[in-house]
Amino acid sequence: MRKKLLHILGAGPWQLPTVRLAKSLGHRVLVSDLYPNRPAYALADFHEVVDITDLESTLAVATRYRIDGILCDTTDIGVATAAYVAEQLGLPGMGHETALNFTDKGRMRQLTDRGGLVVPRYRLVDSAGGLKDAAAEVSYPLIVKPVDNQSGRGVSRLADGTNLEAAYQAARGFSRSGTVLIESCVEGSEIIVDGFVVKGHPQILGVARKIPYPDTVTVSSRIHYPGGPPGSDFDRIASAACRTVTALGLLNGVFHAEFIIHGDEVVPIDIAARGGGVMIYSHVIPYISGVNANREMIQLAAGESIAIKPQPIPRAANIEFIRLPPGRISEIIGIEAAAAVPGIAAIHFNLGIGEQVGALEHKDRRPGYVVALADTASEVIDIALRAKSLISVRMDDAKNHFGIA
């Protein structure tokens, strides 16, 4: 029997688990990526260098290889492309219009607003001419962000109009469409909801609290999945998540959503039709829920049946982020000792020796993180902090090592 050929968009480090898993399930794999040297090329059966945001070029590659399925489950930038190619070739997919609902924050706001959810006050701006009027209608404090990017790139929080023009230009610089979203700040507790939709029925796989840095409130210092029996606010969180994915039209597939609990309201902030980053998708969700969402997405793309049955009482997980002062990294010490701490699932540095640490402007500027897994909330935080305390970094020609923050 001919093995199915799956086309995976992206060939970087975050796609490696998907490529490995697809091959272990007996599939052949084609990967495509914009860059000529990517780690997944060596694992895949075939690879092509092509921009995964380019719909027609990706379709041409997929057609030439006669693929049996396509997926982009680890990065926003290829979600719409995968949906477009699947639609054109009659393969399983969410549909191109649905993919746009999840990758364009302007559409996202409009659809959740129409769906009856509580959303921030918002305006869409595509030129500097209407900037001040839009900000006045929304009122300060407010958030300025690109409608079609990820990881907090180009996002600013403004208390007043002093830096409005600069914030707009920063957001526009990261917006592929050139459109910028201006929305009111919603105060409250930030949460993440991970789940999976099967035939229009969403199931919750995990709920986490986000703890922001005090001086950079748009960037988290910790993502904590407490585990244990659902809390008193679980039902309204689950309801808001289900209503959000329904409003955006997702019938099958994984989702990763961010909300703010503001009093009695659960306000949707952002939602992606892909797995969560920083190993949430590959390590955390399978452990806490008992559901390997990565495996289910591969089976979905291959046209196979799936079954999502999370365990009734979730386990705990904690992602502790690493922060360093600006400068060049000259030495990293203690990773092996930290990784040996029982309960540590992974330690990852985005930057290596000789690379520069910049200002913490968005999520991708965090130097790295520690992932811990355990049965209880207190235990998992202790494990993460113990491992983190064993790591130190020397910057430039500093005489002393910096313990990581």
Report on this model:
The protein has 405 residues and is α+β, with helices and mostly antiparallel strands. It contains 12 helices and 20 strands. The strands form 4 sheets. It has an 8-stranded antiparallel sheet, sandwiched between helices. A 4-stranded parallel sheet has the order 3-2-1-4, with helices on both faces. Strands 5-8-6-7 form a 4-stranded antiparallel sheet, with helices on both faces. The longest helix is centred in the middle third of the chain and has 15 residues, at 234-248. The model has no long low-confidence stretch (mean pLDDT 94). Residues 109-302 form the ATP-grasp domain. InterPro entries: ATP-dep_AA_Ligase, ATP-grasp, ATP_grasp_subdomain_1, LAL_C2, PreATP-grasp_dom_sf. Keywords: ATP-binding, Ligase, Nucleotide-binding, Transferase. GO terms for molecular function: ATP binding; ligase activity; metal ion binding; transferase activity.
